[in-house]
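Field reference: "sequence" (input) and "structure" (output). Example, Rhodopsin domain-containing protein:
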Amino acid sequence: MDLSKIPAADPPPGVTPNFDNPEGSKFAIYSVSIALCSSATLVLLLRLYTRLFILRISGLDDWCCVMGQICAWIFAILSLINIRNGYGYHVWDLTLDKITPFKQYDLAEEGIYALGVWFVKTSILLFYLRLSPEKRFRQMTFVIMGFVAIYSLLSIFIFTMGCIPVQAMWDVTRMDGAKCADAFDFVYANASFNVLSDILTLVLPIKLCWSLQTTVRQRILLMIVFGTGSFACVVAVLRIVTMMPYIHSNDFTHFKVTLANWCMIEINVGIICASLPTMRPLLMRLFPRVFSTAGRSDNSPKGSGGSYSLKPKKKIRNWDHLTTVEGTQATTHEPEPEQDNPSDSQHIVKTEYEQTEESEDSQGISKSTHYSVTYNPDRDHV
């Protein structure tokens, strides 16, 4: 049987198949893929420059982001290659010999997409682990990380091996008698899991960022940076909405372009959102008035006349420690207890204030100043 002579599907009423010069979406595929991957790659390179050349450090989150970008480029390249197999064309303008290679490339794209999203989300969550040593915060981060890993692995498995026999996933001649998972149902489930994980990831650092001891302007800027991740939530929701008109459509070679474009947006926007919080040292060099935390914060304790009052110290955080791997290794000191020795008739009162000073050149290094005041009433009578 010569599959190159058999139409892949019947056209809708009133539509004439065009096998010689069909209308496709080649321009949209090229423009969206190249523009999004190039923009995200540029931001990623700025991130790596900040980490490797300004801070001279790197973390696992940086390399997860790199892997996510590699997956985005592989996704784009597979899309461009698949144009020759009918990607972007109406299915009734194709012959059956195009469907098998089309599906093979499409399945590879779906697996790469799930893997890329997994890398990007893991990169963001690994960065969160450097924000705070608080046990509950880290536990929640690990829980979300595990949730993302489980549904990502499940997605890759279903996307690539969702039929029995597996060959029926791409070979139309094996479809008779094959048992396959409902593709749309699982795509909806995957998109819903993405939305849920995006929301949890977005909400998790809000309280932590607001607790930083810095100016209100700096807090708002930092929350805006983290808030850019909300766009990833919007993209995931739009991908769900976009799929709805195609539930009962058999024109999969054409509408797959729209779904793939949203997938490209989701991966690359995620990479940009994951990179922005780590680029603060670079932004501080370019825009020092906006991004620098030098100077007194709104919560710095001051006495009358601008002098520092002596108060029991607190653990002080500011934005600088968010950009270093060692940022969470902050050392905290408990105030020394008041000493009272009745036999010596001495009353010793100790008060302590710790001021953290971090400059652009000393990332995450703190300087502590301790004041000790001792009063001995017996000495007044000597």
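Confidence is low (pLDDT under 50) at residues 294-319, 324-367.
The beta strands are 163-164, 179-180, 339-341, 346-348.
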